[in-house]
Specification:
With 342 residues, the chain is of the alpha+beta class. It is built from 5 helices and 22 strands. The longest helix has 14 residues. The chain starts with 13 loop residues before the first helix and ends with a strand. The structure holds 1-hydroxynaphthalene-2-carboxylic acid (1HN).
Length: 342
């Protein structure tokens, strides 16, 4: 069958096709056959890597550029064009570095997103979470669960830098992101850390409890002791998880936090997971295989492990410690988690 000039493959005239397209736009409909939903994914996304040697000078520059009076938070976000919206670090998580100069404060606010702080350098920092003061010294982890009031202060010397990790992208996607500036009001009751005097010994509490850990600070000395004493896996790696002592669930429900220690000559077993993680190098150096990509990392670097890749880590110093935050628990609770040794 021959087609007359001006007709397309359906025998429609260019004018008729144009009119149909206009009617779709006016009716707010989209032809599904012209979108990517049925396209087979071409491999897993690549990992991204932010080197501390590149980032550290930018932190000093950020202090020169703005004050905490002007900025709600003086934060450099680690943005990845592959992650949702291009403003996030990986699909469901964003990672950032925040900085305070001596004497500075970052005013109180709260939001539905869960957040955590892993201290990189400087001492004399304090994050106040629902009225509880949490000291920030290097290596300490402080959580500020969704809905909790939090503010930061630098009462010491030198530049105070920490890594912030949040589940903001997930809240943006779900439409649950709500932000409220201070002043602080309606502080909920909290439980003193001294109520958790020994492992496995927890208070019996009245009423329903929040979905997050009543312990907000996990000091370096505590996680270091737990990590050293954890039984090694078959591949030699040791891992601990940061949990809610009342339930054993992750300390915050939508972000799984693990610390892993690996040693020279003992590469980790290769694992494929559909969970997405952002990893901070607490110490040591090494390399990670992420699909067919190799990322060589050093202390305080951040790199991502996008879901669906086969991943393995290898230590090139005597030992190395990784702090990895992932959406593992989100996927598990939604019955979407798929993991296999590969
Ligand atoms: C935030 O509220 C903080 O409270 C830090 O310290 C980093 C990144 C994105 C959105 C909110 C904070 C953040 C953030």
């Amino acid at each position: 069958m021959s087609r007359s000039q001006g007709e397309n493959q359906n025998g429609l005239s260019a004018e008729r096709l144009e009119a149909i397209r206009r009617s779709w736009v006016e009716a707010s409909v989209t032809p599904l056959w012209e979108t990517a939903v049925h396209r087979v994914a071409q491999g897993a996304p690549r990992g991204r890597h932010w080197r501390w040697s590149d980032i550290r000078p930018l932190i000093d520059d950020a202090i020169a550029v703005t004050t905490t009076e002007n900025a709600e938070r003086r934060v450099l976000a680690l943005t990845n064009p592959d992650a949702r919206g291009g403003r996030n670090t990986i699909t469901n998580i964003n990672a950032n570095f925040q900085v305070l100069a001596p004497g500075e404060t970052a005013r109180p606010h709260r939001h539905t997103a869960n957040a955590l702080r892993f201290v990189v350098e400087g001492s004399g920092g304090v994050t106040t979470v629902d009225g509880k003061e949490c000291l920030m010294t290097p290596g300490d982890l402080v959580i500020t669960p969704g809905g909790s009031w939090h503010e930061h202060a630098h009462r010491g010397e030198g530049t105070l830098v920490w890594l912030d990790v949040l589940d903001v992208p997930l809240h943006q996607y779900l439409g649950t992101q709500v932000f409220e500036p201070g002043p602080v009001h309606d502080l909920p009751p909290t439980i003193p850390d001294s109520a958790f005097a020994g492992a496995g010994l927890v208070p019996v509490l009245e009423g329903t409890q929040a979905a997050y850990s009543p312990l907000f600070r996990f000091p370096k000395a505590a996680w270091e002791a737990a990590l050293q004493a954890a039984p090694a896996h078959r591949d030699g790696a040791r891992s601990i998880r940061i949990t809610n002592p009342l339930t054993g669930a992750p300390a915050m429900p939508l972000m799984d936090c693990r610390l892993m220690r690996i040693r020279k000559g003992e590469p980790t077993a290769t694992l494929r997971s559909n969970a997405n993680a952002a990893c901070f190098v607490v110490g040591g150096h090494g390399r990670s295989r992420i699909g067919d990509q190799v990322v060589e990392w050093a202390a305080h670097d951040v790199f991502t492990l996008p879901g669906h890749n086969v991943v393995s880590h290898e230590c090139l110093s005597q030992e190395a410690t990784l702090f990895c935050v992932s959406d593992w628990e989100v996927l598990r609770r939604l019955d979407l988690l798929v993991e296999e040794e590969a």
